[in-house]
Amino acid sequence: xxxxxxxxxxxxxxxxxxxxxxxxxxxxxxxxxxxxxxxxxxxxxxxxxxxxxxxxxxxxxxxxxxxxxxxxxxxxxxxxx
Length: 81
Hints:
By secondary structure, the chain is mainly α. The protein has 4 helices and no strands.
């Protein structure tokens, strides 16, 4: 799962940016966003993009998994025409 590796890199580079509770929230938001975006393959480029975006938004201060995932979904949802 790309988010775990990305979070480990983030913590190593930036120090302890996220608390254990934050990490739980970020992972929950990531999973929720992937489910709603219908991304089944956790190794797909889209899954990595979602992980990076979730982490970035969390770094900006958002900690609610529902709001965090919704912001990601709004960025990447494809609008059928």
